[in-house]
Amino acid sequence: MNFNVLMENLPRRIAAPLAPEICEDLKVGDRLLIGGVVYTARDAAHQRIAAALARGDDPPFDLDGAVIFYAGPSPAPPGRPIGAIGPTTSYRMDPFTPLLLERGLRGMIGKGRRSEDVVRAIARHRAVYFGAIGGIAALMAKCVQRAEIVAYEDLGPEAVRRLEIVDLPVVVVNDARGGDLFARPADG
Amino acid sequence: MTTARDLSARCVAETVRELFLTANTVLPADVLAALEGAGERETNGLGRYVLERILENARVAHEEGMPLCQDTGLAVVFLEIGQDLHIVGGDLETAVQEGVRQAYRDGFLRASVCDPLTRHNTGDNTPAVLHTAIVPGDRLRITALPKGGGSENMSSVAMLVPAAGEAGIRAHVLDRVRQAGPNPCPPVIVGVGIGGSLDQAPVLAKQALLRPVGRPHPTDARLAAMEAALLEEINRLGIGPQGYGGEVTALAVHVEMRPCHIACLPVAVNLQCHAARHRTAIL
Q1: What SS3 string covers B151-181?
Q2: ipTM of the complex
Q3: Domains located in chain A, CATH noted
Q4: pLDDT (mean) for A58-66
Q5: Mean pLDDT across chain B
Q6: B170: domain CATH number?
Q7: Which domain holds residue B122?
Q8: Which of B35, B46, B70, B172 to mutate against chain A (most A CBs within 10 Å)?
Q9: Within this chain, do residues B177 and B142 fall inside the same structural domain, yes or no?
Q10: What pLDDT is stored for residue A188 in this prediction?
Q11: Are B189 and B252 in contact (CB under 8 A)?
Q12: Which pLDDT band, with edges at 50, 70 and 90, does A187 fall under?
């Protein structure tokens, strides 16, 4: 794949939560700016959400069309809505992802590659996995306008936060057709 | 006869605090220079875009005193303690842990340490991991290395067979970087520790990350040659910045080595993400 082709796709804006037709339209390598409402959840929050669903309890936020940002921000300094924020490596959430997709999750923002199971589940549920750049968290903090904890406050940085974001830059890594940006011969 | 020099535990704590505050917000000049060089070399447009954002982030973090990355790391502290130094007014380990606690609280740095089983956060990023060495002299050299979890997860130690030799070591390191792919936030710095024991090899690999980026091994020409060869092989993998393809997968390979048991060939690979944060002070 010629990666220079990717630069010809100028970023366009999409809004979260995601309408079903948006995912049909997205393809591997698309550069996008995400705005709207997303929820942070990473390792410990995923364990709790999965346990809640197994008990028959409601998830801590409406999963229908939702976008989860795999992130644990640093604490907000005075006068700022949030501290440094950026994606954590996504594969650690793979064991929980098919279940959440079944329950309506439509988008995930993270970094790194997903398991084959998850890539298939993303296609089956017509969802999308976005890659954000790791380690640019001072810059990415500027994309967050509001943040509030909505669940699991005791988890500290791993609590579930509702974020209002503007123009968060991402690339489509896995699309609803089963495409995978990271599936390349060089990866063996 | 040598008399011991006194150094207060409070001074140690204050220094550790300052080192972690600075390390988390200011990228070292050698790392910045390496990233700028990478931006000039990178031919893939998306890879270049990633490198530009990384450099822009470093400027913003420095100007605003914001952490470079939300993962402000497990606090790793290297201490070289002069044998003629005497810590007064408290014990050394407590002072270091106190400095870490204050830095993460005062700098709004993320508490990223938890109980391995319950996953309950300790709340103040302690305990830090300490590596100590007793050295000649009466000084204390402190290096703070906030180590991110994503790149640490892609690191490993392997006990190769001696017959694997240098070719086996190189193949192993290359395979580790290939398997890690986009996960450790490339472009990475690859720290390699060869020899010693099961426990010493990864410490060597971590110490290798502290060398100025891209400086060849200063005393062993064999290792300097291995570093250059590995860097070329790694950058032919095509993983690229953030895994989006390209020429620059690693900024540098640093190898450290010690003699090992005749039956063994330990090889540790410690990957460091592009936010290669560390600071040193000498007291």
Answers
A1: HHCCCEEEEECHHHHHHHHHHHHHHHHHHHC
A2: 0.93
A3: 14-178 (3.20.130.10)
A4: 97
A5: 97
A6: 3.30.1330
A7: 5-24+68-147
A8: B70
A9: no
A10: 39
A11: yes
A12: very low
